[in-house]
């Protein structure tokens, strides 16, 4: 095992604190832009948007964008505007996802659609998306606009793809990785790529940072998928078993289905079709996931993608910034332990 | 009455044909871009988007953009891409509106949300919006991007504003005009303004074309508001009385409420609160709208905005293009006769 391979093993108490500390003053500026730009003459808009924006999300994507910028230079005002735009795109996605999934809870709070209904939630998502593009235009960077508009199109395609496969238990691992590569990882990749573009990096370095974001995004989603069957609502801020009750086909389910006996497969098919929603069904699901090593193998996959993310940083100089970006990967995976 | 004032009077058999004829070859190119760009590896996306895109909408906004371009120059490939982007923004808005309003019918066909459900409809709307921005980025025009991202933000604010006022029968005329100026007219204005920007017109001419679009958009919406209480589902392609049953406060209702006796006001309040949804209630509403001159005054307002639209063209050279743009205004209003 190389030194880098051991990186994701060594630190199960990994924390986001070094990353947060590194970009603390930058994030103050970004938060100010976010607060300014979610305002509107229509009071319901900042009220609804603020409900989610102030609900304690970690703002991982802006933080990664700014940390990558610090790896290769110094963030400027234009970075703060683009970081806020990225967070708006992410927030719009969450608002629309919760409508699509009929979710009632997120981060331990009632969702916007649960409080205000689908209509205002869809429209405020649209508003944030438009505001994101306004800020990107103000940045004056056509390359940043290209990367983020392209990312937004890929995200929605991944989401529609997931919606279609939601009730198909035969979805295979490759298709699933392609879905989460689109719906989750692309915005991480775009955030990191933009840092390189704004610093005028070489194409190689741009691709390396994009790879870091892409692999980290996949590791992030796979870990989330596993956690949904592991933790309780206190630690996650969302109800455990949400994916199960929504009939979401995630990697743990795909592996357990592939490896299961006929009776197991019948169980999973019924679950994904929405006919297994009792707490006792979730208990059965957890047992099947453990017995088939589906959960541990999902986390092993997450760890491998985490290693690829860390490997992607090898061309960049060692130091506190790189250490913080590596520990962010370790933290992403350590959440499941 | 001036020659221009009489313009909206003279031609109640006005047609869109001159405009359509003028931009026929341009629109072939735009339609090709639209078909190309709604494709995706996820088959549900072109299926759902195509359902609305091929449902016989007139594509007014792209046509106006191209006709305005022909008033001052010659459209190029970049215009076709921007025209397709404008139609995608409009289509995304319609998809989301039908989710917000729980609409079952549009242009005489089942809505996408009625067929595929809210989830895919919201996401495909997001996809079209992202694709629109991709095309705008490809145009390379930061000014076009600025105008359209700004328009998109204003549209959503207008829609949220309308949603909030939907059940408030005391909404006044000024507020209503501000709402439709945002939710409907801004995209017309942006379409016409972009023609000027791409041709490198003076600021004055740019503003004149934007005014033409803005006033035409308001005339268009006011006429639609009146038609909802006038025609039947054959002529409109949507159920008559939709606004009434949705409790939508439109200008006819605002005027009838203001001018009504106490009993009338009670009726309207009950209607807007959703307690008057029978066919017999709609019949009562129609009688009250006629007796208070609310319908005819709404159409008179539409005619005045139509005149302002035509006035906005006075700095441009006479000829077939200007005639077609004038007749498009007349057609917009003549739909109610």
UniProtKB/TrEMBL annotation, chains A, B:
It comes from the Bacteria. One of its GO terms (molecular function) is heptaprenyl diphosphate synthase activity. Its cofactor is Mg(2+). It comes from Zymomonas mobilis subsp. mobilis (strain ATCC 10988 / DSM 424 / LMG 404 / NCIMB 8938 / NRRL B-806 / ZM1). Its EC number is 2.5.1.30. Keywords: Magnesium, Metal-binding, Transferase. This is Trans-hexaprenyltranstransferase. The keyword Signal does not apply. InterPro entries: Isoprenoid_synthase_dom_sf, Polyprenyl_synt, Polyprenyl_synt_CS. Belongs to the FPP/GGPP synthase family. Pfam families: polyprenyl_synt. It is an enzyme of class 2 (transferase). One of its GO terms (biological process) is isoprenoid biosynthetic process. CDD domains: Trans_IPPS_HT (cd00685).
């Amino acid at each position: 095992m190389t030194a880098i391979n051991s990186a994701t093993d060594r630190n199960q108490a990994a924390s986001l604190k070094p990353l947060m500390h590194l970009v603390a003053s930058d994030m103050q500026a970004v938060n100010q832009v976010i607060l300014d730009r979610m305002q509107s003459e229509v009071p319901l808009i900042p009220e609804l948007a603020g409900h989610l924006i102030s609900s304690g999300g970690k703002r991982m994507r802006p933080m990664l964008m700014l940390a990558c910028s610090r790896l290769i230079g110094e963030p400027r005002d234009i970075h703060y505007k683009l970081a806020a735009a990225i967070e708006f795109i992410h927030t719009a996605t969450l608002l629309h996802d919760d409508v699509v999934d009929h979710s009632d809870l997120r981060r331990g709070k009632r969702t916007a659609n649960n409080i205000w209904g689908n209509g205002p939630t869809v429209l405020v998502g649209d508003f944030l998306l438009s505001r994101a593009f306004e800020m990107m235009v103000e940045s004056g960077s056509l390359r940043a606009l290209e990367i983020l508009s392209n990312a937004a199109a890929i995200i929605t395609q991944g989401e529609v793809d997931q919606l279609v496969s939601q009730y198909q238990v035969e979805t295979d691992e490759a298709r699933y990785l392609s879905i989460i590569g689109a719906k989750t990882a692309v915005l991480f990749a775009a955030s990191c790529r933009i840092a390189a573009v704004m610093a005028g990096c070489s194409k190689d370095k741009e691709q390396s940072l994009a790879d870091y974001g892409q692999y980290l995004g996949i590791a992030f989603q796979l870990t989330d998928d596993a956690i949904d069957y592991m933790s309780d609502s206190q630690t996650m801020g969302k109800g455990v078993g949400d994916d199960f009750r929504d009939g979401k086909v995630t990697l743990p389910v795909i592996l357990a289905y592939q490896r299961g006996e006929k009776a197991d497969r019948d169980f999973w098919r019924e679950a994904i079709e929405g006919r297994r929603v009792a707490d006792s069904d979730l208990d059965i699901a957890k047992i099947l996931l453990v017995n088939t090593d589906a959960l541990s193998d999902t986390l092993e996959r997450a760890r491998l993608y985490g290693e690829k993310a860390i490997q992607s940083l090898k061309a960049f100089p060692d130091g506190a910034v790189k250490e913080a970006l590596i520990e962010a990967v370790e933290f992403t995976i350590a959440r499941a332990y």
